[in-house]
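Give me the fold.
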Amino acid sequence: FRCLNQECLKETCRTCGEPNHIPLRCDEVEKKDELDMRTFIENRVSEAMIRVCYKCKQRFYKLEGCNKMTCACGASMCYICRQPITGYEHFNNNNKCGATLDVVQLHQEEMNSAYEEAKQAYIERHPEASDLVLKYDPQQHLNANKPMRTQKAKRGRHRH
């Protein structure tokens, strides 16, 4: 429906009363509370795999290579535990942080964990959302085992 009042001109769906959502069907339209919850979770999941240089705050992630990351600013850190390091001794004396590790599996675990934590945090802040079922649940994509897209850091290069 399109209001012909020149001061309004609002377009709405005659079936559900929501703003016009053509070409989507009424049952495909994401409501505001669903959108808010989904974007909250998606942001947390994205942040889970991003590392931040402790010195210059540059954000990055890696797709392959060893876990000793050296930022363009000269700072070195462990990709797994995210702690500042010097040399490779950290990897020799640490069961958790090996010099090499399947980064896709690491990111998958981090993102799945972030999904669960984010969903719980959102429901704690918004108890009315406890029974909310997301039309577009980010977890569907997390468990799809799709290869991750290649993307370079925005500023500077991180080498190992």
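Residues 147-158 have pLDDT under 50 and may be disordered.
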